[in-house]
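Reviewers asked in the last cycle whether our approach scales beyond single polypeptides. To address this, we selected a multi-component target totalling 512 residues and predicted its structure end to end. The input consisted of the following lines:
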Amino acid sequence: MAGADDRARIEPPVLANVGLTINGAQHELTIDTRTSLLDLLREHLDLTGPKKGCDHGQCGACTVLIDGRRANACLALAVAHDGAEIVTVEGLADTDGELHPLQRAFIAHDAFQCGYCTPGQLCSAAGMLGEVRDGWPSAVTPHADGGIELTEAEIRERMSGNICRCGAYANIVPAIADAAA
Amino acid sequence: MRPFRFERATDAAHAVALRSDDPEARYLAGGTNLVDLMRLGVETPGTLIDVNRIEGQNDIEETDGGGLRIGAAVSNSELAADPRVRERYEVLSQALLNGASGQLRNLATVGGNLLQRTRCAYFQDVTKPCNKREAGRDPAGCPAREGDHHNLAILGNSELCVATHSSDMAVALAALGATVHVHGQAGARTIPIPGFHRLPGDEPERDTLLEPGELITAVELAPPNAATTRQRYRKVRERRSFAFALVSIAAILQLEAGVARDVRIALGGVAHAPWRAARAEDALKGGPVDEDRAARAAEAELEEARPLRDNGYKVELARNLIVSTMLELAG
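The resulting structure, written as structure tokens, was:
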């Protein structure tokens, strides 16, 4: 749209200060208000684990945890999340470098081929297991009180926001089931 | 993307005041649709007003009358998981869980869900004409009529626009009969669902009855129906999860000695607004729910369908969905 491009040339960027805790470390940054959380992580802090797949919230490769809940970092404006605690795939392992159980399970099950979607799959699975622990239902959860049984159908439904172009789902599903067991 | 100023509203009146001073401002909730539209160049706000941290708008509270008041900034996930919603308004929880993905539902809010824009490909593509995007008044300004419209409207469309509303949540709210609380320069008012979303008519750019600058503060649900009431949300789509509806249905049925006392049916994916199927409801009320009566109810509703060249399949899909869902609820 010509109008928008003209304005972009005329109007200078607007800067804002944001404070974020990222993988346990405090960061204070001055950024263009247009900066997505994904671009902040990748371009400002060199945390290139979260990937830019579609940049429209459709592929899940950018998934990170915001205050413990999984979210698409590409659609999250960094300024809107001032004060939040962010965990990326780089922060899943413990401080001694011991891999997260999901990471170990993905390796054991060969749950990837090219690996591009894997950081998003791992963060999404970590957030998803938290949702299950909190008793959150999915579209395939039977309406019954009590715990959620993490069946293959549950895992597939709950992970549908993470697309794998290599089609490694056949190994991703059992990897997540193992890590959850 | 156009540069924008960023403001954070502390309460509804503050948000409305910020917006009234600035015609190029937009409210920002979860951002899952607005940020995407800004990236596509469809939305070009000069200011974003963050309405995520307004006190009271992140809560779900019981009302004095026994209903629920859901703050506009409550996430789609939290609402779907709320035990009161799961127990009393199951169709709403099911609809929410059938929408988007886990990570999008965590960001997306109740207010934002109601105000999401159509996913019509021409609306989202600024290189194509679109009467909704450009407030056009010429039928030639809707390329979807002759182009790709396989997933667009079959009911209530106009010469100017054949877009569908994309929300699952709003379809359940239309069946339940909810109330939207809004705050504007003239103060607070309420707008019922159905009725909150409008048909395109000769103003396709207007999705809802909101006036410019009005902010959704809450959605209120009336006290639940009798415990004998059954509820169901079903959604037909091109893949089993994380896709918009081709046709969806939110249905509520109360049977008394085999007779349908209360019937509420709303359809998604078929119109510019969640489509409350009042004719089908009337045709079913007062008698048994069997295959013959359900089929006649569906026919009564879909008589006025005006499908386009490539979406006539939706008429049959909607008919089958009404019949099978009502029989399931009656079974």
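The longest strand of chain B covers residues 247-256. We regard this as preliminary and will revisit it once experimental data from Aim 1 are available.
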